[in-house]
Each structure stands twice: as C-alpha cells, then as structure tokens.
Amino acid sequence: MIEKDLTSEELQHVESSLRAGTFKAPKGGYSNAQRGLITLESGRTVFGKQANDEQTAKWLRKEVAIYRWLNREEFAAVPRLLAASETCLVLPDLSTWDWSPRWTAQKLNSLFYAMNQLAKLSPPEDLLPSLRPQTPLDIASGWRSLIDDTRWEEVLSRAAQWQPDSMPHPSSLVTSQHIR
Asked: Which residue spans within 58-170 are E strands per DSSP?
C-alpha cells in the first residue's frame, strides 16, 4: 500500500496530540523527542515525533532532510516521510514491524542488502553536513542502551561472514512496506 501524504490539518493534529500527550507511546526510542502513535480523524494511525528542545530540533531537522533525500531516491528500506514541520515529523505506523533484537538470517540479509544499496547512493552536497557527526550523543538518552548492547558483536561477527552471492533475490528482502 502506498502511503499518502498528510494534509496540513492532519499535521497540526499530530503536533497538538504530541504536545498534549494524547498519543500511544511506543516502547524504546533513542532521543528525548516526544513520540507516539496518533489516530487521525480518518481512523488512520501514524507515528509522530516532535522535538522538545533545541538540540532535539536540530537532530530532527537532519532526520527530515535525510528522509526526504532517501524518499526521492526511492530507497525502499526507509518509511515514507508523510509530513514534516520545523519541529515535527510524521511517518507511517510501523508498530506491526518486527523490532525484536533477534538477528535472523533473513533480517541480516535484509540489513546487508539495504546497506549495499545505500552505499550506491550519492547524497547531495547540501546534505553532507547533516551526515557528519558534529556533537557527541546525549548519553542520558536512549542511545546509551544501544551503545551498551553487546548483541552488536553478534551482528558484526555475522556481517564479516556475509557473502553477497548467497543472498536471496532482493525482491524477497526489501519491499516498499518494510524490511522483513
């Protein structure tokens, strides 16, 4: 299913829901941004993320710029950016995706295929500053848990053994809906 962009009224609804706290909070998250699932008047559910301080707003603007570029490139391994403002972004509801930390062969193949496809893209010059680290991560945020997670050793070990020739056909790995 192709996701349609949000109207300005729907974006305003997402922003006000995030400010008011009237949303379903997801598990996890790595930034200090307010984020959650919001149901629109149409019954459609979307994921909204809103900056709540200047540092988070800066990172959110970078995230929006990268989503816009990857969406223009039709990079299938990222969701479609449905709407954005200076302090808010809206994506499709991805709550049915498998976010578990289990790294199956299929998930690893999908990851490595996406990384291979991403490596073939050339970002526009104006986006390059957004891709370079400029400030250290706020270790008080959820990023600390990712840094401390020892499961990365397993992923990196399996990545070192990955052979592109053994990968199934790309159409079975990445769809416009999600990474399997």
From this structure: 83-84, 88-92
- Region 45-66 average pLDDT: 91
What value does the CA radius of gyration of the chain take, rounded to a whole number of Å? 17
What pLDDT does 130 receive?
Answer: 72
pLDDT of residue 17: 92
DSSP letter (8 states) at residue 117 = H
- Please give the domain boundaries of the chain with CATH numbers for all domains: 8-92 (3.30.200), 105-172 (no CATH)
Q: How many CB atoms neighbour CB 163 within 10 A?
A: 7
Q: Which residues are CB-neighbours of 133 under 8 A, at least 6 positions away?
A: none
User: 149-160 in b/e burial notation, b at 16+ Cβ within 10 A?
Assistant: eeeeeebeeeee
Residue 68 has pLDDT above 70, yes or no: yes
Q: Could you tell me the pTM of the whole model?
A: 0.75
For residue 129, give both structure tokens: 């500053």
